[in-house]
Fold this sequence. Notes:
Layout: H1 2-16, E1 23-30, H2 39-44, H3 57-73, H4 75-80, H5 84-100, H6 103-109, E2 119-125, E3 128-137, H7 144-148, H8 158-180, H9 185-204, E4 216-218, E5 224-227, H10 230-240, H11 244-248, H12 259-277, H13 282-304
Parallel strand pairs: 1-3
Antiparallel strand pairs: 1-4, 1-5, 2-3
Helix pairs in contact: 3-5, 3-9, 5-8, 12-13
Amino acid sequence: xxSEVADxxxxxxxxxxxxxxxxxxxxxxxxxxxxxxxxxxxxxQGGEPAIEPRWDALWILGYFFAFLQLGxxxxxxxxxxxxxxxxxxxxGTVLLFLAGSVSQWRRERWSxxxxxxxxxxxxxxxxxxxxxxxxxxxxxxxxxxxxxxSTEAVEVSAWTKLTMSIxxxxxxxxxxxxxxxxIRTWFLVLIGGLGMLYTIIAAVAPRKPENWGIxxxxxxxxxxxxxxxxxxxxxxxxxxxxxxxxxLRLEHFSETMSPKEKAFWDKAKAYFEAKNQNEGSSAVNTxxxxxxxxxxEKMNLLSSS
Length: 305
């Protein structure tokens, strides 16, 4: 899919004859977890679909670093019979995994609503208006609007408070014990350095949405729409998906439009409203579609101008 998007970008830029991108629109479909086959039943019963992040190389790398640290900590035990380093490292690793497995973090990370109907969302960065992300969300998928907003405070359960209190006591006990044992300092420095190295890698490494539990798939027919002219990109999007660009256009154009452009958007709005109000009327849809096709042919002059 990455190669398809790259080919689409190259062909569009060559067609435009310019290297500068005026507007880039990426199209995604948000779905529920592929292994969850009872999503409709769960939503009808008031439940929520399971969120299952996919494993990736970074996830596996974390376990590799953990075993590597344990292997380094076992060296003093094999060479000099000193097991203290391995004991401290093993206890710290167990406590670290226990702290990361608290269910409270799961509730805070995915603290958002689930959709019960089809919806379309457009996400844009405030400092990057030339890039837009259009998400066609399906029932049961995470609400993109909630994910884009700041996370609201999630109530901490009594079990979480008890668990973290016990872990606090165990961490303090581990530090006091480490201070009284004879350990090989440089081995612990190396172990700690590996831990910091993995933290840096995890912070800067790019990851896919599914690795965070967000199921996004590129739209196969139109994975992206790119043009050096913003209006041309908006028109292409509106022709492919009626109604989507009507909202996105307001972010780029308010009143400054040519007569041809204004005529197109008036027709697009009329077509979208007619389609929603008369979904069962084939005659109205046929007439509206023919009107849109005629406008599309006329607006092709805009791309070459």
